[in-house]
Amino acid sequence: MAFRTLRSLSRHSSTFASLNGVPTPAASLKCSIWDVTFQRGDGVFEAVRVVQDRDGVPAPRAVSLHLDRLERSAAALELKLPPRAHLESWLRDAARNGGQGGYVRLMVTRGGGSQGYGDHLADLDAPANAFCVWQPITADDAKTFALEPICAPWHPAGFSKDWATIKWLAYGANMHSARLARRTGADDALLLARGWGVADDGPLGDRAVLDGPNFAVAWLEDKVLKVPCWRRLGMLESITARLLLDAAAAENFRVDEGVHRLSDLERADEVWVLSTTNDLTPVRSVGYASFKADPSSPARQKLVRAMADCAAALG
Hints:
alpha+beta; D-amino Acid Aminotransferase, Chain A, domain 1; D-amino Acid Aminotransferase, Chain A, domain 2; 6-stranded antiparallel β-sheet; 16 strands; disordered N terminus
């Protein structure tokens, strides 16, 4: 069988990895070149932050929400998953063995022989696999983001439910958007929708705000928390944004979850990037608009504490 070693994992100093639940050195993990997920990106994944549970044991944060999303993604792609109990056990093993200060990435492949891609080859030996690997998160309390707004014509943006809310492994367009943004001197991209009442040559400021290549965004304007609505805009639901919304409700923040234009965001008092690895990280600029990027701001501190409480309540 022909394999490609997942060398990128070994560069991340992983202290724990497993293949279908069997502990395996990260540098030794292999994926068959005949696996359609390797060839086409046709698979699903989750990235789950590791936190201490109520007993002080490193555990995957909000694991039930992540598994719910994984099951939705797999169902949309008609991809068979291992039993949910097995997946949760593998995530917990990786979190416990890897420790706090990192996150666990779970990747499920389709294997070889899928319809139209090798199903005519009876001897094709490329089983579906579930890779689980702990990776470190670099702690940087002073970190901020500069985002470059970019129209994302490849994004479903609410066009069809058949193309939305799937966390699949094909992130090539996302990564290219980030590259284009970095060419301008920004740290990453802020994706804007095509359409939504705006002509292709229309003003950028009129476009609907989506998310980032691998993060969600939210902002505070006149004490109102504003979040792009993943349901209406056909985006992947962000688990971190879900925790933020729960935290905002617990702290009695007014919330406006809807379709917001770039020109709306430019009026914000504070803007944040949200993800498994970034949690609630301040944004210092979006294009030419600058913002207060203060990690110690009272609103951010209150929301971060409430997010931790909400996550802990999920178990």
